[in-house]
Fold this sequence. Notes:
With 244 residues, the chain is an alpha+beta fold. The chain is 31% helix and 27% strand. The chain contains six helices and ten strands, in the order E-H-H-E-E-E-H-E-H-E-E-E-H-H-E-E. It has helices at residues 25-38, 48-56, 102-116, 131-140, 198-204, 206-225, and strands at residues 17-21, 60-66, 69-79, 85-93, 121-126, 144-149, 168-174, 190-192, 229-234, 238-242. The strands form two sheets. Strands 1-2-3-4-5-7-6 form a seven-stranded mixed β-sheet, with helices on both faces. A three-stranded antiparallel β-sheet has the order 8-10-9. A hairpin with a 3-residue loop joins strand 9 (229-234) and strand 10. Helix 5 (198-204) packs across helix 6. Residues 1-9 have low confidence and may be disordered.
Amino acid sequence: MSDLSAGAAAVPAPPGVEIRALDTVEEVFAASQVLADVWGGDRGGMPPNLLRALAHSGNYAVGLYAGDRMVGASVAFFAAPAARTMHSHITGVLPDQQSQGLGRVLKQHQREWALAREVGNITWTFDPLVARNAHFNLRVLGTRVTEYLVNHYGPMDDGVNRGDDTDRIMVSWALAAPPVPTPADDRVVASVAVPHDIETMRRESPADAAAWRVRVRDGVLERLSAGLVIAGFDDDRGYLFVRP
């Protein structure tokens, strides 16, 4: 694999791990099941028929294999401006394979696939309450925040999102540009904290998790309405805001 842009250097895939296109119906069904397992057992996030259509029409649809076992998958489709941008709709790795850098391996592969097709920009959304995703997207990859989307998908019935509003942060990854750096402390004028482990909180204290949703939403929207922008993420302070 070629290197990522400066500051987000490529990491090699672990031995025995490879990424393959979803070429057959069997592979499509396996990928749909993997993603369902990641999101708590609901195939609604990426049903096999939709995944098959996206794959067959030339979009990005891959499985991540550890040996013969599919342990992750990623799906992206072309977006406006046509043929120059992709939207990464869903990427997941099975729980027993997480925290091994496989998500980063998938993103590297997605980047190279896009660049080979003259796509220079990839967008995606993530839950602003999930600190590890904010860290990965903003600090590791160096993406740029473009929008805060309130209840973007509406009610969802998977095991991760059930009973919660689906607020999302939209980010944009300029594939050939240097990663967006975390702003220096003297530029940061405000911050919005997030819980360190919202997943555990949702299981053990749903009311507290719901309160965090409102607290983060209100904090972010208040600062955006004041003309500030999200320019980075800090593990202790949360989202960092600067004047544009």
